[in-house]
Design a protein that fits this description.
Rossmann fold; Dehydroquinate synthase-like, alpha domain; 51% helix; 15 helices; six-stranded parallel sheet; 2 domains; three-stranded mixed sheet; globular; alpha/beta; 383 residues
Length: 383
């Protein structure tokens, strides 16, 4: 069977790698635009570090620091206007998934005509985006190595995907020092986001042998390191493992895509304000329970990657143990037991299920195709 693995982003990984941003950005031109959030990169000092590195290599620097969580159509188009006014040569996304996704959208509109909404979907981008350097400050989204940007359509209350190799970052700079300041809740939510990428990419209908190796390594690293990243927040070696695992998981979904955990989770984020990773975490055990009959061998492998012994168990028993291992991990890192605890109302679930059931892309990638009724039942079981 033919399979495809694609990961074009050049990666520089390691403690202190942020210092390389100036010399690397210089390769793309003279004017750099930094796209970041409203305050966190400024408070942490990472924004100043990037600016200093750029100016020390004689680059002109502008900063667009208006990106909100789950970047909107409006903020991306405002950023693109600002970038055009600055005549930027390279766009640097600094922060979590939101600034990196916004940077992709802004860089896209620098070289492609029209509005950002024209590019919702897959393979609609005609021209390569302006060069993008992605610098993650959380260990979760993997956006630094993916061809995806998630943009929020606030009028329609939908999260829209732009998928194109033209928006893959040219360079990812991964410095674990930038993740040391992450609070426990952010560490947990982003860590589970990375875990959902690894698992959904691994069991995807478009999974491939190269991605499978990376996915199992990512799952094993997160299962071992995430609880310790919360209990030992200043342990740089643990933070390094989490950042590396997140990157691997990003590489996995770049080729294999995600499944219904993401499709269902988007509505919990949009309507109830749950962080993306938390929404995924609350749904993951029940989605895994639903999916495992479609590929019990892979779920058995997930069980082993999460540190459980499967010797003497049937394949079905070993596969189901992955759900047990997931529930134990989520409890250990302080994730709520169900969606009720974050205010989700059961009466909203049927409507969510109807919309998710129309997401052909994610349904096709999911190992087991659910009906609308089955999606609603998964939501209810996750309450």
């Amino acid at each position: 069977m033919e399979s495809v693995f694609y990961s074009p982003t050049r990666i520089i990984f390691g403690e202190g790698s942020l210092k390389r941003v100036g010399e690397e950005a210089k390769k793309f031109g003279e004017k750099a635009l930094i796209v970041t959030g409203k305050s966190s990169s400024k408070k942490s000092g990472s924004l100043d570090e990037v600016v200093n590195s750029l100016t020390s290599h004689n680059l002109q620097v502008e900063v667009f620091n208006k990106v909100e969580p789950d970047p909107s159509i409006g903020i991306v188009e405002e950023g693109a206007k600002f970038a055009k006014k600055c005549a930027a040569d390279v766009v640097i996304g600094l922060g979590g998934g939101s600034p990196m996704d916004a940077a992709k959208g802004i860089a896209l509109l620098m070289t492609n005509k029209g509005k950002i909404t024209d590019y919702f979907g897959t393979d609609k981008v005609k021209e390569p985006a302006l060069p993008i350097i992605a610098i993650p400050t959380t260990a979760g989204t993997g956006s630094e190595v993916t061809k995806y940007a998630v943009i929020t359509d606030q009028k329609k209350m939908l999260k829209q995907i732009i998928g194109s190799p033209h928006i893959n970052p040219k360079l990812a700079l991964l410095d674990p020092l930038l993740t040391l300041g992450m609070p426990a809740s952010l560490t947990a939510n982003t860590g589970v986001d990375a875990l959902s990428h690894a698992i959904e990419g691994y069991v995807s209908t478009q999974a491939n042998p190269v991605g499978d190796i990376l996915a199992l390594k990512s799952i094993a690293l997160i299962a071992e390191a995430l609880p310790r990243a919360i209990s030992q927040p200043d342990n740089l070696k643990i933070r390094e493992k989490m950042l590396f695992a997140s990157m691997l998981a990003g590489m996995v979904i770049n080729s294999a895509g995600a499944g219904i955990i993401h499709g269902m989770g988007y509505f919990i984020t949009l309507h109830y304000g749950a962080p993306h990773g938390l929404a995924n975490a609350l749904l993951m055990p029940e989605v895994m329970e639903f999916n495992l009959v479609a590929n019990p061998t892979k779920y058995r492998n997930i069980t082993e990657a999460m540190g459980k012994k499967v010797e003497g168990l049937s394949e079905k028993e070993a596969a189901h143990l992955s759900v047990v291992a997931m529930r134990e991990l989520l409890q250990k890192i302080g994730i709520p037991k169900g969606m009720k605890e974050i205010g989700v109302k059961e009466e909203s679930l049927a409507g969510f299920a109807k919309i998710v059931s129309k997401n052909e892309r994610l349904l096709t990638l999911n190992p087991r195709r659910p009906t609308t009724e089955e999606i609603e039942e998964i939501y209810k079981r996750s309450m």
